Amino acid sequence: MVQREVRVARRAVLAGGLAVSAVGFAGLPASAAAPRVGGRAAAPSISSTSDWDARDASGEIEVLDSKPTKIIVHHTATPNSDDTSQSHAFELSRQIQDYHMDTNGWSDTGQNFTNSRGGHLMEGRHKSLAALQGGSQHVKGAHAGEQNSVSLGIENEGTYTEASVPGSLWESLVSLCSYMVSQYGIEPGEIYGHRDYMSTACPGDVLYARLPELRESVGAALGLAVVQPVTWPLLRPGAQGPSVSALQMLLGARGAVVPVDGVFGESTQRASAGVVAERAGSGPSCFGSRVAEPGLFGGLAWESVTPVLGAGARGEAVRAVQVLLTSRGRYVPANGVFGDRMVSVVREFQAASGLAVTGVVDREGWLRLLG
Ligand SMILES: [Zn+2]
């Protein structure tokens, strides 16, 4: 039943996308389609904090005089309820607020908005709705660590590690994201999952896998081109492959003693947990993540272990680049020396990846090698 709803929703989205494209072809030369044309999205119905009978915040709500530049999608990790009523959605909002205030000790709900499985949209943290309607200010939430001051957080009811996304939730998510993009001038490619920044499985593999489709749907709704982002990989216990070998070498470069066997086993998990903790990169920011998620490594934790490397560099971090280049079909000996030959290979890899050709492996280079 749920599967069928999703397929119907996809068809509807495709139809909308085709309609937008047809207008584009008829009315504009291709070159004119690139700049932001400012299509507007209609405001979806969003229930305010007073509608769902929120408690007052226990502290001051921080309203920033700046626009958010990205949207971060979460799942609540709560049961996949069959109750699609508004009263259930309001109850969910109250439960989340209680948990964030009474257990996490926060001043209010962490996320800016909440989306129920029935497709009911609700304001999360106080003042978020007025800020969104105004389009020039941002309410700083508590949902994604370092990203709170620049991102809007949306909690989607349910657990999408394996279950499919209900069509009603999906449609309201597309509407809300389209409205956010329209109001703030956010690029539709700047829609991410929680795991893109922190070491968490949120928003679940199923919902996460649909983020490219979400970006495309939002872009189609507004007539905007979409640049799909390159993101850091999420490593889980038992993960294997070149990205694990690279992490093991990078941890070694920081002084950790871990085997370089390409398997994300216990000692690698322990060593990498230290890196995650340094950045406060884990933790129960999502409503239902009451259980810690040990043994995960992803998001910005990668930035802590990936140094900028260029000609003359030596050591385990260089060897990590060499292993990753080889895994991408550019053989270089894994000798830990950033010599002339490696500079040439890096330059070729950068050109093929659409990056600035510098011969230096920076954040963008690491993202393409690992992502
Ligand atoms: Zn989350």
Structural account:
The structure is a single chain. With 371 residues, the protein is an alpha/beta fold. It folds into 2 domains: 2-222, Peptidoglycan recognition protein-like (Lysozyme-like, 3-Layer(aba) Sandwich), CATH 3.40.80.10; 242-370, Muramoyl-pentapeptide Carboxypeptidase, domain 1 (Orthogonal Bundle). The protein is 40% helix and 7% strand. The protein has 12 helices and 8 strands. A hairpin with a 5-residue loop joins strand 4 (113-115) and strand 5. The chain is globular, with a radius of gyration of 22 Å. It starts with a helix and ends with a helix. The model is unreliable at 1-35 (pLDDT under 50). Zinc ion binds next to loops.
How is the topology of this model organized?
Layout: H1 2-27, E1 46-47, E2 63-64, E3 70-75, H2 86-103, E4 113-115, E5 121-123, H3 128-134, E6 138-139, E7 151-156, H4 167-184, E8 191-193, H5 205-209, H6 211-222, H7 242-253, H8 266-278, H9 301-305, H10 316-327, H11 340-352, H12 363-370
Parallel strand pairs: 1-5, 3-7, 3-8, 4-7
Antiparallel strand pairs: 2-6, 4-5
Helix pairs in contact: 1-4, 1-6, 4-6, 7-10
The structure holds zinc ion.
